[in-house]
Amino acid sequence: MKTRLIVAMIAISAGAAMAFALSGPCRAAETPQPAADKLHYEVVTSASTSSLEVGKEGQLVVEIKATDGYEFHKESPLKMTVTETPGLEFQKLKFGKDDVKDVLKPVFKAPFKGAKAGKYEVSADLHFVVCISTICEIKRPAAKVPVEVK
């Protein structure tokens, strides 16, 4: 019984090795491999309104940049959901591809009004995919922006 199992394992291994050898040259050295410790994106919120007066309008601006040779694709998901924030009134909380000018260089803009004086933190959950030639990665970071209403 053990002999049959060993013979079967050798046959399977030999067949796999033969298939690998016949499949052509390995291209691992040519294709960039993703580094496990890198995010492959950057979220920029510096264009967001950080201070405004009660009754005035501001804007949450979230730009997503692909890095390290990664890029966005038109077919990939692209969403932003703003968490309702007491003291701020958002016109809209859910955003998608139709809300950005260029899905390959996405910038979300969420207008809001300062309703009540105070210091707040606006939070937005993002959902997008970045890809290189060998892999795509689903990303779900949060963007947080401090806002003071005077």
Question: What would you say this structure looks like, in words?
Answer:
The chain has one helix at residues 2-22, and strands at 41-44, 51-52, 57-66, 78-82, 88-90, 94-95, 107-114, 118-131, 136-139, 142-149. It is built from one helix and ten strands. The longest helix is centred in the first third of the chain and has 21 residues, at 2-22. It has a single domain, classed as Immunoglobulin-like. Residues 1-34 have low confidence and may be disordered. β8 and β9 (136-139) form a beta hairpin. The protein is mostly beta strands. Strands 2, 4, 6, 8, 9 and 10 form a six-stranded mixed beta sheet that branches. It has a four-stranded antiparallel beta sheet with strand order 1-3-7-5, with no helix packed on it.
Features of the shown structure:
150 residues; mainly beta; Immunoglobulin-like; 4-stranded antiparallel β-sheet; 1 helix; 10 strands; 14% helix
Topology overview:
Blueprint (H helix, E strand, L loop, with lengths): L1 H21 L18 E4 L6 E2 L4 E10 L11 E5 L5 E3 L3 E2 L11 E8 L3 E14 L4 E4 L2 E8 L1
Parallel strand pairs: 2-10
Antiparallel strand pairs: 1-3, 3-7, 4-6, 4-8, 5-7, 8-9, 8-10
